[in-house]
C-alpha cells in the first residue's frame, strides 16, 4: 500500500520505521526544523531525521495550508497515517488519500482526546493506559476505532517513559491496521463510553500540592515529567523536582515539611512522604536533592510550597 506519513516527535518514529518495512512511503510530512539547546541550533525533527536515514522524501510544514495540501495530495497515496504531527488535517486533505487518514493515539479512546493523553491519564491516576488506531475525522479524536489495546506500564513510569513504551506497542498495532485496510478486512467501530479531554499541559500543571494525598502528588509528578516539569516553591524560590518516588519507610511529615537524609529529602503530603532524589533550583543546574538541602542549613525550617 502506498502511504503518506505525518509525524514530528520521537514517539512517531517507531511507527514510521515499522510501516517503511512493509509498505511504500510516498512521503513524510513533519514540522520544520526547530532551534534546540543553549545555542538554539536549527535541528530537524526526530521524524525528519529518521526519514532521511530511510531515504524517504520529506515535506516540512508548520501547518497543513493550501501549499502543503497540494504537495501531499500530489503524492497520490492510498492512505495517510498520522502520529503526533502537531497540526490539524482538514478537508480537502482529509479525503485526499483513497482510504483517508488513520491516527495512532496514545489513549484508550474516547478517554483523553487531545494533545497530552498520556500525561493527563497519569495525572488522573488511571489504572490502565493504552493505544488506539482510528479513522481521522474533522472532530477531535472522535473517529471510528479500528483497533485498541491496553499496554502494561510500570507503576512508577513517568510520562516520557510511558510514551516510549506506548510508541513501540502502537507501531505494531498500526502496521496490523494498515494491513487490514489493504486487504479489506479492517473494520472500524464507533467509540463507546464517556469522552474526556487532554489539553496540552501548561507550566502551572506541574505544581505539586502537598496538601493532597501522596498518590495524587506522585501521579502528578509522573504525568508532568519531564515536561512541563514537576515543581514546588521553597522560601519563595521555584524548585524543580526531577526524580522522586513514594517513601517506603512510612515517615510521617506534615504537608510540605522537609526532612533531609543522607541520599535524599523527604517532603510530607496529606498521608505520607515523597522521597526526592534529584532537583533543580531556579537559575542553577540539576543536583542531588540531599546536596541542595544541605546548602540550606542556615534555615531548614522552610517548607515546600512556601
Description of the structure:
The chain is built from seven helices and 15 strands. With 306 residues, the chain is of the alpha/beta class. The strands form three sheets. The protein has a seven-stranded mixed β-sheet with strand order 5-2-1-6-7-8-9, with helices on both faces. The chain is elongated.
Find the count of extended strands (DSSP E, 2+ residues): 15
| Main β sheet profile | 7 strands, mixed
- Uncertain residue ranges: none
Provide the spatial order of strands within the biggest beta sheet: 5-2-1-6-7-8-9
Task: Write the element-wise H/E pattern from the N-terminal end onward.
Answer: EHEEEHEHEEHEEHHEEEEEEH
What distance lies between the first and last C-alpha atoms, to the nearest angstrom? 59 Å
Q: Which structural class do you get from the secondary structure elements?
A: alpha/beta
Question: Radius of gyration, rounded?
Answer: 22 Å
By DSSP (H or I, 4+ residues per run), the number of helices equals: 7
Q: How big a fraction of the residues is strand?
A: 25-35%
Shape: elongated
The whole-number mean of residue pLDDT values reads 95
Give helix % range.
10-25%
Q: Which labels suit this protein?
A:
elongated, 7 helices, seven-stranded mixed β-sheet, 26% strand, 306 residues, alpha/beta
Which helices and strands occur, and which strands form pairs?
Layout lengths: L1 E6 L5 H8 L3 E7 L3 E3 L4 E3 L2 H9 L3 E3 L5 H8 L5 E5 L17 E5 L11 H7 L5 E7 L9 E7 L7 H25 L30 H11 L5 E5 L2 E10 L11 E3 L4 E4 L4 E9 L5 E2 H6 L12
Helix pairs in contact: 1-2, 1-5, 4-6
Amino acid at each position: 500500500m502506498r502511504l503518506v506519513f505525518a509525524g514530528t516527535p520521537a514517539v512517531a518514529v517507531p511507527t514510521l520505521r515499522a510501516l517503511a518495512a512493509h509498505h511504500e512511503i510516498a512521503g513524510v510530512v513533519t514540522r520544520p526544523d526547530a532551534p534546540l539547546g543553549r545555542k538554539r541550533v536549527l535541528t530537524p525533527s526526530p521524524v525528519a531525521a529518521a526519514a532521511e536515514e530511510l531515504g524517504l522524501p520529506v515535506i516540512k510544514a508548520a501547518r497543513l495550508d493550501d501549499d502543503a495540501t497540494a504537495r501531499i495530495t500530489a503524492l497520490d497515496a492510498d492512505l495517510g497515517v498520522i502520529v503526533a504531527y502537531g497540526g490539524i488535517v482538514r478537508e480537502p486533505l482529509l479525503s485526499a488519500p483513497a482510504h483517508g487518514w488513520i491516527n495512532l493515539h496514545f489513549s484508550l479512546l474516547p478517554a483523553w482526546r487531545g494533545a497530552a493523553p498520556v500525561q493527563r491519564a497519569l495525572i488522573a491516576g488511571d489504572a490502565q493506559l493504552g493505544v488506539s488506531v482510528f479513522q481521522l475525522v474533522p472532530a477531535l479524536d472522535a473517529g471510528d476505532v479500528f483497533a485498541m489495546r491496553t499496554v502494561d506500564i510500570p507503576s512508577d513510569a513517568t510520562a516520557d517513559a510511558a510514551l516510549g513504551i506506548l510508541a513501540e506497542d502502537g507501531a505494531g498495532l498500526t502496521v496490523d491496521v494498515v494491513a487490514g485496510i489493504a486487504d479489506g478486512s479492517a473494520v472500524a467501530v464507533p467509540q463507546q463510553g464517556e469522552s474526556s479531554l487532554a489539553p496540552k499541559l501548561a507550566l502551572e500543571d506541574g505544581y505539586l500540592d502537598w496538601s493532597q494525598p501522596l498518590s495524587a502528588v506522585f501521579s502528578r509528578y509522573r504525568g508532568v515529567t519531564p515536561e512541563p516539569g514537576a515543581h514546588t516553591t521553597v522560601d519563595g524560590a521555584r524548585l524543580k523536582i526531577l526524580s522522586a518516588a513514594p517513601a517506603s519507610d512510612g515517615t510521617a511529615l506534615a504537608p510540605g515539611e522537609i526532612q533531609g537524609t543522607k541520599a535524599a529529602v523527604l517532603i510530607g503530603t496529606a498521608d505520607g512522604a515523597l522521597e526526592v532524589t534529584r532537583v533543580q533550583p531556579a537559575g542553577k543546574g540539576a543536583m542531588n536533592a540531599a546536596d541542595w538541602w544541605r546548602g540550606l542549613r542556615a534555615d531548614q525550617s522552610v517548607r515546600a510550597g512556601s
